[in-house]
Design goal:
heterodimer, A: 525 residues, mainly alpha, 3-stranded antiparallel beta sheet, 23 helices, 3 strands, 3% strand, globular, B: 290 residues, alpha/beta, 6-stranded mixed beta sheet, 4-stranded antiparallel beta sheet, 14 strands, 34% helix
Chain lengths: 525, 290
């Protein structure tokens, strides 16, 4: 294959990803989080604080702090943005055509990777450019391109390379093509945060070779920062400071040769998933992957279903009865129950997990309820992520839109189905939790309202589940950390939620449902 | 029953449906036209999926553009390209749509599965069905609420000849009691079952006739001749070739022309497809001469 063809293929990959609305939504979300993190010092909080002293918003500090947050967010969302090309090919009918071309597996996956990585890097570049603008608006000192460039190349790039490689692997290997791949990546992403306490908590702080495995790079970068500033405790992303103390300036020199070597090593590691991808690539073989059921059969799921037969059989039978019963409820109520039944019947393992959590929430001690709610809502979020995009993905939109209620009702009914399911399943836990933590319960209710509206709206807007899934999983992770920031405690699980954050999310949820009600009317369909 | 009054649907500057008016009564109506003629857009408006830019659609006097629920309660719709939910069996798929349509009769689902010959596959995941089986499941779904209006868009696309024949018979039977609107560009699909044909061209309704009337209009416009290959090559630019089949050293030609195109040409009995082609050819010639 000649370079012109390579260029055409890579550009095609880049174009296909960049023209998705989900890319814009995620980019805006990352920019918003990064900008929000650059707090106005008048509030008594600042973006970077060490020993009650804040750091000035110059190029060094802004590039580092926003880059660090971007590695976290893009490190998660990048995977969901980059993947899905195989399913796209099968949906569009180009899969067979591609498979029959003389392009080899390695070439095809190679250009996929280059396209995905280039696309993610262009998002990172746009983010860095918006931070330049932010520095002009709120920052100090001259604009220095080098810290931003270093952060982009050594800070952000390895994580994005990993996202691209794992996205290629998840698209190439049939068992990872569905939600299983999505969920597994989230676990992997969270596992990387284990490096931070391991690197910072015990003994003297120094860089070591094993931090190469922290490909997103939070732990080596924080260690390097601690070393550079000669501090053991630093807050990045929002912390209170003493305005009476002088403002510090972050010096240059973060990117030492040993840190760069570590990051280059991480880049090499990030490419490793391409090896199994090339070895396991299905090349759209119809006996391995099928249109609209790209995940094919996965032995572990089949095994789980087989092992759980005594539970699965009555559960599935009960869900079928629920579906039948919904025909007996009149009008909207019946259609709503049918949608709830569809969500559960489509994902019986998740339904079982959610029901298990709901039952456990009646038995476990009250102190364990936040943890149980985290698991329950985590499963719920994964289950409802495609509540409104399922019709588009399955090709049933026209069929369903010609039934009573039509497309207009169907969209907001999907939001209601997600909300209803979340409320019913979490009700036992919330009722028991209420006397101990009424604010937490209210936050959870507001969070469910907000997330339900978002699941339906983002699913329809982006015609897929992954934008919601990426943002939901990020919010769930952040929400379970002890940040002390109410706005980040979306579901009230970390105890930081307050009246302002609860009413904010409730209002945003209500606005979301209003948008769902107005949407098809705005489009005149 | 269903009155379509001067319906227009525009997408920007493009008029996909341009001033179509029809009065439809129970029976099978074949909506005929080439790709892009506006068939699917008209069907989508009738199925309440999209609204006309202007004009009205009345179901027994009631405006279904303003009150789409009136239509949806009595509608069965099978779009051109549809899918099924992964992980759901055929029966569960039907149960879901039965719930949406408020159909409580369990026996009805079983009867429909038998009608479309899927009763033995009822508990199999529908995602694994062949195109024909999926299409049959789609028609079962469309019939769940015993609709008064059944709209099927390109129902035989992708079916094998046997499935196609079965489908035609099924639609013909259904058309005895209700209004069945079948959109297709494969004329043979509706040749033997349609009571009326609505012919669309570039968004406009150019004819609304019985199939017999369409064929009667083609008398004297379709011709046949057995020609030597050299004669055929010399003459082919002077008429519209409908079919050219080699027969030994000669070519059996069927052609459309408003009058006998040459001395050896004999009048032929036109099929519905040929009649429509002849009509289209005649219209095109008139436009050129005008």
């Amino acid at each position: 294959m000649n370079p012109t063809l390579y260029k055409a293929l890579v550009l095609n990959e880049w174009r296909l990803r960049s023209r998705r609305i989900s890319s814009l939504v995620i980019l805006l979300a990352v920019i918003a989080v990064s900008w929000l993190m650059v707090l106005d010092p008048k509030t008594g909080m600042a973006m970077m604080v060490a020993h009650k002293q804040r750091y000035a918003y110059d190029s060094q500090a802004l590039a580092f702090a926003t880059g660090l947050i971007a590695t976290m967010l893009f490190g998660l969302a990048g995977f969901y943005l980059a993947r899905g090309r195989s399913q796209e090919d099968m949906r569009c009918g180009t899969a067979g055509v591609l498979a029959a071309t003389p392009v080899t597996n390695a070439q095809l996956l190679g250009v996929r990777w280059l396209g995905a990585f280039g696309f993610l890097m262009s998002l990172g570049t746009v983010l860095m450019l918006t931070i330049w603008v932010l520095q002009l608006v709120r920052g100090v000192g001259p604009l220095q391109p080098l810290p931003y460039l270093q952060m982009l190349v050594f800070g952000l790039a390895p994580g994005l390379m990993l996202c691209a490689s794992l996205a290629v692997l998840a698209d190439a290997w049939a068992p990872l093509m569905g939600k299983r791949g999505d969920a597994l990546y989230w676990v992997l992403w969270m596992a990387q945060f284990a490096f931070i306490p391991a690197a910072l908590a015990n003994g003297p702080i120094h860089l070591s070779g094993w931090q190469m495995f922290d490909i997103n790079g939070a732990s080596p970068m924080l260690v390097a920062l601690s070393r550079l500033l000669d501090v053991t405790n630093i807050s990045v992303g929002g912390g209170p400071f003493d305005p009476a103390l002088p403002v510090l300036t972050m010096p240059a020199g973060l990117w030492s040769s040993d840190l760069i070597a570590l990051r280059v090593g991480s880049m090499m590691l990030a490419l490793l998933p391409l090896v199994p991808a090339a070895l396991r690539f299905h090349r759209y073989a119809p006996d391995v992957v099928k249109l609209r059921n790209p995940a094919g059969r996965w032995r572990i799921v089949s095994l789980l279903q087989w092992l759980l037969r005594p539970l699965m059989w009555p559960l599935t039978a009960a869900l079928r009865e629920l579906m039948r019963a919904s025909a007996w409820l009149p009008g909207l109520a019946g259609r709503w129950l049918a949608d709830v039944s569809l969500v559960l019947l489509s994902q019986p393992l998740l339904a079982l997990a959610m029901l298990g959590c709901a039952v456990a929430s009646v038995i476990v001690p009250v102190q364990a309820l936040p943890g149980l709610l985290t698991a329950l809502i985590g499963a719920w979020g994964i289950a409802v992520a495609d509540v409104s995009s399922r019709d588009l993905q399955s090709g049933t939109l026209a069929l369903a839109s010609a039934t009573p209620g039509g497309a207009w009702e169907r969209l907001w009914r999907h939001g209601l189905a997600a909300l209803g399911l979340g409320l019913v399943l979490s009700a036992p836990a919330l009722l028991r939790w209420w006397p101990q933590a009424p604010m937490g319960v209210l936050a959870c209710l507001a969070g469910l309202l907000f997330l339900s509206a978002m699941a339906a709206a983002l699913g329809r807007l982006t015609q897929g589940s992954r934008t919601f899934l990426a943002l939901f999983l990020f919010a769930l992770y952040v929400g379970t950390q002890k940040t002390g920031i109410g706005a980040l405690d979306l579901l009230g699980l970390s105890g930081a939620a307050h009246a302002g954050s609860v009413s904010g999310y409730a209002l945003a949820g209500a606005l979301g449902f209003t948008l769902l009600l107005a949407w098809p009317r705005l489009r005149r369909t | 029953m269903l009155h379509i009054e001067n319906v227009v649907k525009s997408f920007g500057k493009l008029k996909a449906v341009d001033g179509v008016s029809l009065r439809l009564e129970p029976g099978v109506v074949g909506l005929i036209g080439h790709n892009g003629a506006g068939k699917s857009t008209l069907m989508q408006m009738l199925a309440t999926l999209t609204r006309p830019t202007s004009g009205s659609i009345l179901l027994e006097g009631q405006d279904i553009v303003a009150k789409p629920e009136l239509m949806r309660q009595r509608l069965g719709y099978l779009p051109q390209d549809f899918g099924v939910y992964p992980h759901l069996t055929a029966l569960e798929f039907l149960q879901y749509f039965a719930a949406l349509k408020g159909v409580r009769d369990r026996q009805r689902l079983q009867e429909l599965l038998e009608l479309v010959n899927l009763h033995e596959q009822a508990n199999r995941p529908a995602i694994g069905f062949s195109g024909g089986m999926r299409q049959r499941l789609g028609i079962a779904q469309a019939l769940l609420n015993d609709p008064d209006v059944l709209i099927v868009d390109e129902p035989t696309a992708g079916l094998d000849p046997e499935e196609r024949l079965r489908f035609r018979h099924l639609l013909g039977d259904l058309g005895r009691k209700r209004l069945v609107i079948v959109s297709t560009h494969i004329v043979s699909d509706v040749e033997n079952m349609a009571t009326h044909l609505a012919i669309l061209r570039q968004g406009r309704l150019v004819a609304f006739e019985t199939p017999e009337a369409v064929m009667a209009q083609a008398v004297g416009k379709v011709w046949t001749a057995l020609l030597a290959p050299a004669e055929y090559e010399a003459l082919r630019g002077h008429f519209h070739v409908l079919q050219a089949q080699p027969q030994g050293s000669r070519v059996q030609v069927r052609m459309a022309h408003p009058s006998r195109p040459f001395a050896e040409a004999e009048p032929a009995r036109a099929s519905l497809e040929e009649a429509l082609m002849a009509q289209r050819y005649a219209d095109a010639r008139e436009e050129v001469h005008a």
